[in-house]
Design a protein that fits this description.
Radius of gyration: 20 Å
CATH superfamily: NAD(P)-binding Rossmann-like Domain
CATH architecture: 3-Layer(aba) Sandwich
Order of helices and strands: EHEHEHEHHEHEEHEEEHEEHEHHEE
Largest sheet: 7 strands, parallel
Shape: globular
Oligomer: single chain
CATH class: Alpha Beta
Mean pLDDT: 81
Bound molecules: uridine-diphosphate-N-acetylgalactosamine
Strand content: 15-25%
Structural class: alpha/beta
Number of strands: 15
Number of helices: 11
Length: 398
């Protein structure tokens, strides 16, 4: 299966400076006019720069172009050229890399900033969110303002522009699942304000399609991981990696028998690109691998990949922790043609090596633009093309 080509479009990525958003930008910017709207509260401008790409060893499926070059400023406009990697890590001679990247430094809850960023777009990837479940528990209204109220502004703006919206939903909509794997028709009983907000957004997306004929697709991400995932809410894989690298104890919460479906960010990007072109709109889709891995196995996997001498220790389980999670991927496979490609072991290995070589991904040859306030000052840098690929691997089974 190959990803669809998204070419010559005007695209807005909200939260484009964040973990998943910045990978999407990287895939889109070579061949599209890409706008990023981000307040950089948790995202970073570094995520949109070449140096961070090369440092983190960003991995891309072989048909996902992964480079960007654009004049960047904090208001409007763009220019610059881009060179991307096409299938088999070679630029496609039929494609004219002609993309651009414009950063609007602002909040999705600011209608003016949103309008400015969305003017003339025909496609919106809505990734901006307050992703901390804990923060949503501490301050439900605050997270609701971003995750739901502001998201409705995005949907309304999309109506104005007649733009398709692909939005980030979450496995959090399901809460404690009744059965595995979790299908899209499973009971939705979120256990946190974050999950409630994502569920409401996911339902609004469907209803905007039904009521206003707006093409929307909600993608319910399972446990995402990959380069650039960092910070206090970044997830167990980056925490374990940090601990292993420092030869500090790897801390398992609870008995470690709980399981998750870990999906690599490059697969999430591919799911987004597929959602951007599908006819099957007005729907929500799981984005996972269909596999699950215990946290105990994960700890050992990370420790081995790093070659660390970290002891694996246990502490109290997280209150309200979900015991098991695994996506039913039949709908997304059937409707979007999506299948995860990156197995957990190779995904982790690539994080450890910073690029990974043996499996058929290509990392970008990239040029990137200027910092905010520095006009169009160009900063050019090349990263090597490094082939690697990934096949789904079975880490553990039900
Ligand atoms: C994920 C999402 C969250 C929400 C939720 C829905 C991430 C980062 N979070 O939360 O946004 O969608 O799914 O169900 O993807 N753990 C340890 N040691 C650590 C850290 C974590 O043992 O140092 C355990 C933790 O107790 C849990 C598992 O690892 O059992 C996964 O934790 P997580 O925070 O990475 O993700 P999760 O599934 O709680």
């Amino acid at each position: 299966m190959t990803s669809p080509a998204i070419r010559d479009r005007t695209v807005l990525v909200t939260g484009g400076g964040g973990f998943i958003g910045s990978h999407l930008v990287e895939a889109l910017a070579p061949y599209n006019d890409v706008r990023v709207l981000d307040n950089f509260s948790t995202g970073s401008r570094d995520n949109l720069s070449v140096s961070s790409t090369s440092e983190t060893g960003s991995l891309w499926a072989n048909d996902t172009p992964a480079s960007a070059d654009g004049g960047i400023d904090d208001t409007e406009n763009d220019d610059g050229r881009a060179e991307g990697t096409g299938e088999d890590a070679d630029p496609d001679p039929d494609l004219d890399p002609d993309g651009s990247l414009t950063i609007v430094d602002g909040d999705i809850s600011d209608p003016m900033a949103l309008q400015r960023a969305a003017r003339g777009v025909d496609l919106i990837f809505h990734q901006a969110a307050l992703v901390s479940v804990t923060e949503s528990v501490d301050a439900p209204r605050r997270s609701n303002e971003t995750n739901l109220d502001a998201s409705l502004l995005v949907l309304d703006q999309a109506r104005q522009e007649d733009a398709r919206v692909v939005l980030a939903s979450s496995a959090a909509v399901y809460g404690h699942p009744d059965e595995l794997p979790i299908s899209e028709t499973a009971t939705t009983e979120p256990t946190s304000p974050y999950g409630i907000q994502k569920l409401a957004l996911d339902q609004y997306a469907r209803s905007y399609h039904e009521l206003y004929d707006l093409p929307t697709v909600a993608l319910r991400y399972f446990n995402a991981y990959g380069p650039r995932q960092q910070g206090p809410y970044s997830g167990v894989i980056s925490t374990f990696l940090e601990q292993a690298r420092a030869d500090e104890p790897i801390t398992i919460e609870g008995d470690g028998e709980q399981t998750r479906d870990f999906v690599h960010v490059s697969d999430i990007v591919r799911a987004n690109l597929l959602a951007a072109t599908t006819d099957a709109v007005g729907e929500a889709y799981n984005v996972g691998t269909g596999e699950r891995t215990s946290i105990r196995d994960l700890a050992e996997l990370v420790r081995d990949a790093v070659g660390s001498s970290s002891p694996i220790v246990h502490r109290d389980p997280r209150s309200g922790d979900i015991r098991h999670s695994r996506a039913d991927v039949s709908k997304v496979r059937h409707e979007l043609g999506f299948e995860a490609r990156v197995g957990l072991e190779s995904g982790i290995r690539s994080l450890v090596t910073g690029a990974a070589g043996e499996q058929g991904y290509s990392s970008p040859s990239t040029q990137q633009g200027a910092e905010q306030g520095q006009g169009q000052e160009q900063q050019q840098q090349e990263t090597q093309q490094q082939p690697l690929v990934a096949r789904p691997e079975r880490q553990s089974q039900d």
